[in-house]
Amino acid sequence: MSSTSSGEMVYVEHTAGVHGLPKIILREVRGCSAEVYLYGAQVTSWKNEHGEELLFLSSKAIFKPPKAIRGGIPICFPQFGIQGSLEQHGFARNRFWIVDPDPPPFPTITSNKAFVDLILQCSEEDVKIWPHRFEFRLRITLGPGGDLMLTSRIRNTSTDGKLLAFTFAYHTYFAVTDVSEVRVEGLETLDYLDNLKNRERFTEQGDAITFEAEVDKIYLSTPTKIAIIDHERKRTFVLRKDGLPDAVVWNPWDKKAKAIPDLGDADYKHMLCVEAACVEKPIVLKPGEEWKGRQELSAVPSSYCSGQLDPQKALQSE
Ligand code: BG6
Which of 38, 150, 196, 272 is most exposed by smallest CB count within 10 Å? Predict the structure, then answer.
């Protein structure tokens, strides 16, 4: 259902997804859409006005808690990776979130109609494995032009003076035609921690980031704009971020893909994770303090750049 019986557009639809899990569909007038599961507050689909899927979802994704959904945009919180006391990437991606009944107002007034406010509050079970009190509010918005915006607001709700320290990532799986034909711009010459080498620090060499083997890197002090250029599809994804200094780039390649049970053997060719993150230096909040971290995605035809796949030009032509 995308319109009411009187023909009015339904911007936000509450429905059921795989295995009856609650799902929210956001739609915009031009025909673009996004789907969000309350399980993990996970975006699992983002389509442009032609109905083309822009996010990768594994052909073997398991929609059964407590397993996280493989694909889309999992939220890594309160721990990115294995550094810490929790399971890999923390627990936000395998908790049921609820629709926020009373979201505090956003400082900027927008005319967007396709958005949903979700909240994750720590349960007593969570406090047992991670002794902290927090409130995590997430607004997911589909802009009229099809841009997908995620804004996280995390507050330390401790009443006993305890600091809240966490790491974070929007673990975005971009759908690409063939990862070996993809180039990432914006991370050249930066320092990174290599997850494949015990997080040893290196400096990126060369003028373009391309892919021909497994990669698992945490780029540090990254710019607020990163472009992912899919040469074969002539599409450029532009990732803009705020409050998230790092950027993780991950592709398991063939061997590791085979060892991941919920990833198809050849799926690695059609995905690339570029993740707006805060990993190297954890965010630390005093009681009552709030942190905000935002990621905005847009997808533009690379042909806008008159034959040159230059993301700067793609941005100017928006
Ligand atoms: C990436 C990490 O962000 O996520 C990788 O850098 C990890 O090290 C990958 O393998 C997938 O993690 P998971 O827990 O979803 O299989």
Answer: 196
Q: Which atom of ligand 1 is nearest the CA belonging to 68? A: 15
> What pTM value is reported for the model?
0.94
Distance 81 CA to ligand 1 centre (A): 7
Q: Give the H/E segment covering residue 175.
A: strand 173-175
Give the pLDDT confidence of 87-120 residue by residue, as tens digits: 999 999 999 999 998 898 887 767 789 999 999 9
Amino acid in position 157: T
Ligand 1 atom nearest residue 218's Cα: 6
Index of the ligand 1 atom closest to the CA of residue 171: 3
Cα 223 from Cα 66, distance rounded (Å):
35
Return the CATH architecture of domain 12-313: Distorted Sandwich (2.70)
246 lines ligand 1 (CB under 6 A): no
The residues carrying an active-site annotation are 171, 275
Euclidean distance between CA atoms 160 and 283, whole angstroms: 19
Q: Domain boundaries in the chain?
A: 12-313
Cβ atoms 38, 22 nearer than 8 A: yes
- Residue 182 CA to residue 276 CA, distance in Å, equals 18
Token pair 């497994």 is found at 214
Q: How far apart are CA 270 and CA 74, in angstroms?
A: 17
Does 240 show up as a binding residue in the annotation?
no
Is any atom of ligand 1 closer than 6 Å to the C-beta of 93?
A: no
Helix (H) or strand (E) run with residue 280 in it:
strand 271-285
**Cα–Cα dist 279/167, whole Å:** 5
